[in-house]
Structures are given as C-alpha cells and as structure tokens.
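haha ok so turns out i had the wrong file open the whole time. this is the CORRECT one, sorry everyone. sequence first:
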Amino acid sequence: MRNSSGATTAEGRYDIRKGAAAYAPIVGAFGALAIPTVTVLFTSNKPKGSETLVALACGLLVVATIGSLTGSIGLAAIGAERDQTANLPPAVMYTGVPVAISIVSILASFEVLAAIYLKDQKGLFAITTGMGGLAATYFSSFAVADSWQSGPSDADLKSEWADGQWIKNKEIAYRKAGHVAAVSSAPVILGLVLRLCDVHWSLTSTGVNWIVGSGLVLSMAGTFAGVQRTKHAMYDSEQRGINDWEAYLTPTAVGLYALAVLVFLP
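then structure:
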C-alpha cells in the first residue's frame, strides 16, 4: 500500500503496548485463583504419607501466584508507555517469563493434586501441563514477530537504525519468531515424550525446594530484567532493539523449566 507521499508502507501491524495492557488484568486474575487452592490444602484432611506432594502442590501454587502478579504489573507498565520504542518487545519477552512460569506451575499443581486424590488420572494432568508449557513458549515468541515495527519514529532515521539491528524487517521478524518458537518448545516436547514413555523421577523434600526455588528465581529474574528493559534511551544514545540471545533465552528458559517439572512430577 502507498501513502499520500507515494512511499510504500507495510499493512498489518500489532501495537504491543495495547496487547500488554489487555493481558495484564487477565494474568493477574489467573494467579489470584491459586490462593483459594492453597488455603484448602492447608486446612483439609490429606491422605497419610502425602506431605511431600502437598508441599510441592502448595509451592507450585505460590510460584504461580507470584509470577502472575508480578507479570501483570509489568505488563500494565508496558501498556502505559507513550511511544512504541525498540526496547518494548524484549521487555515484553522478559515480563512474559513469570507469566509463562505461572501457567506451567498452576497446571503442574493440578497434576500433583491428581497424584494425591486421583492417582489413575495423573498422567492426563501431566500431559496438560506439557500442553500449557508449549502454549507458554509459543506465545512468548510472538514479541519477536512484532518487533520489526518498533524503533525511532522518524522514517529516515529508522531505516538507518534498522541496518544495525537483529530484526531488520517484517519478513526476518516472522522467520525468526518461528525459529524461536521451535527452539524453545523442544525441551517441552522432550518432557512430553518422557512422560508418555512413563519416564520420571520421584521427588524428595530437597527436590521440592529446588523445583519451587527455580520457578521463583526465573520469575523474579524475568520481572527484574523486564523492568530494566523498559528504561528509555537517553538523548545521545540509540534505542536498543531486541537481541538474538534475548529472543532465544527467555522462552527457552520457560521450556527448560517445563521439562524439569514434567520429569519430576509424580
């Protein structure tokens, strides 16, 4: 399509700020649902010998609550941005980490509860956990596809600026988004294959601490990195677009967490 000046413009674009603002209340509400479940687990009568599983379920639900709440605040902050600068797509990817960890954790907690109360159905819930992990890594890759339009608002300056960026145009952005989605989903697919082959390891109380702790660390790391990435460029510095290592690191970290959870779920 050509505009009034005769220049060719690309049709079809996504304002990542509006998306982040719309996702924020949904993500926050999702995490809030975990709180009543934790309360029930602490107050209900539990089968004898299930203390470790109850601790794992509660820990995963706490991770889900923290990840969703911090993620929703981060997304709301991105939605309040005035300009669609180049730092916003990587900020969304980082902020998406606690959100994705929350999704995987809350689905995994259902599997643990099934292992306590519905032992014959725990395999089904393990598969749903893997499906949630695949969805989380896939949606996290969307920010790469939408990063091509961000950057300086001046068309001439943006053209020169884009030459030094990893994502230079829409075609490259869409192709790289597919690569990121494929790489980050590989660990989750491996975890699903292992579960279908009934390959998994039992957790001790120490293992529970490691699973819950790793979820908290990843959630906080994504939150802090996302906040840092929302810093605006100074007058004498260039906008920092998304880097290749950032694009691959963020959803792949979620994929590896999902793999670890799948392997160690009861």
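The chain has one domain: 16-264.
again sry for the mixup
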